[in-house]
Amino acid sequence: MVDWIVLWDGYAWPGIIIVAQVLLIVVPLLLAVAYLTYAERKVIAAMQLRKGPNVVGYFGLMQPIADAVKLLFKETILPAGANKVVFIMAPMLVFILGLVGWAVIPFDEGWVLADINVGILYLFAISSLGVYGVLMAGWASNSKYPFLGALRAAAQMVSYEVSMGFVIITVLIVVGSLNLTDIVLAQKDLWFVVPLLPMFVVFFISTLAETNRSPFDLAEGESEIVAGFFLEYSSFTFALFFMGEYANMILMSAMTTILFLGGWLPIIDVAPFNWIPGIVWFAGKVALVLFCFLWVRATFPRYRYDQLMRLGWKVFLPLSLFWVVLTAGVVVAFDLVPRN
């Protein structure tokens, strides 16, 4: 994107342009977060043969707005024994991390706020930091159930980040670049979901665990620990956790799209498919992955904690490590090493 644009009297105002670019990303993202909650309730309702939101507004479309207004006007309760500074900072951190990852996401060729050469490492680092917000919330609440939920979340997020890291390494071996735009362009002839299908499955399931989504929502398992790490939160602080979770879902879906589904590239690079703008393809693929998030929640029961750990350490870790070695061997044996 443009770094410097001369406005009037020969002065350059990069700050205004950067703010405008940030708003072009953040405002649609917040709307997407709001209406993802609506889509989730409608999709799950359809799978369970019921109506879902249908009263507030046409087809219930104003329901997310009504929910936001309700949360804004409810009383914010601070537990007497809580560390108030950390208690307030935790949901803010979770929400902010759900937004800053979008700085390196390419929506189309050239449509990226910061096209850095280590974009995938930046995304992996941002997603890894999410555990700190959860731990801060559980510890600052000064309550046993939030603390148990925070410990569960930390353990499962760390466990599945190992597998996600090996999956990302597999993609990087094939591409030979850490730049997200290069990763997308490398899939011009064949999306990586085809040759790396097992890694796609591992990555998708790991994103479910990384975002504490069903069937891995043990960090907020109401049947065992009431509501988990955000048990003591209410009003707008709870809303920040809620928005952060859904923003992270969209971010992880965007990562999946970029790594395995060709990003903004069309299914077939022929007319009329290549007439559709790249950003539309990108948004459609992200929506498809998000639908799978909702589909899984409506289908699978919650795992036990020992099953969650067993899957991460005894299945995904050996499988992803084996696939890294296999991919590297195939790339070297057939002289497919990328030369940029």
Overview of this structure, please?
The protein has 340 residues and is mainly alpha-helical. Helix 3 runs parallel beside helix 9 and helix 5 runs antiparallel to helix 7. The chain is globular, with a radius of gyration of 21 Å. The N terminus is likely disordered.
List the helices and strands and how they pair.
Layout: H1 14-47, H2 63-73, H3 84-100, H4 119-140, H5 144-175, H6 180-185, H7 197-210, H8 222-225, H9 235-260, H10 278-299, H11 305-333
Helix pairs in contact: 1-2, 1-9, 1-10, 2-9, 3-4, 3-9, 4-5, 5-7, 5-11, 7-9, 7-11, 9-10
Instruction: Report strand %.
Output: under 5%
The total count of helices amounts to 11
Residue ranges: pLDDT <50 for 5 or more in a row?
Answer: 1-11
Mean pLDDT comes to 86
Q: What is the β-strand count?
A: 0
Task: Give the ordered list of helices and strands.
Answer: HHHHHHHHHHH
C-alpha end-to-end distance:
22 Å
Judged by helices, strands and strand pairing, the structural class is mainly alpha
Sheet of most strands: none
Shape: globular
Radius of gyration: 21 Å
- Estimate the helix proportion, in percent: 55-70%
